[in-house]
Amino acid sequence: MSNFLKKLTLIFTLAVVSGASNLSAQQGWFNLNLPFGGNAVYFKDVNNGIINHYKTTNAGLNWFDMGIFSGGTSVSFPQINTGYAILGTEINRTTNFGDNWERFNTPANSQLNSIYFPDINTGYACGKNGNFVKTTNSGNNWSLLQPIPQPFLSSYDFIGVYFTNTLTGWAAGSRPDSNIFVKTTNGGTSWSVNYYIGGFNLFGRFNCMFFINSETGFIGSSGSPGRILRSTNSGQEWYVNFLPTANDIYSIHFPSFSTGYASCYGGQILKTTNNGNNWFLQTTSTGSALLCVFFLNNLTGYTVGDNNTVLKTTDGGGPPIGITPISNEIPRDFALEQNFPNPFNPVTKIRFAIPAITGLSDNVKLVIYDALGSEVTVLVNERHTPGIYETSWDARNFASGVYIYRIETGDFVQSKKMVLVK
Question: Can you name the residues that pair with 124 across neighbouring β-strands?
Answer without folding.
Answer: 116, 134
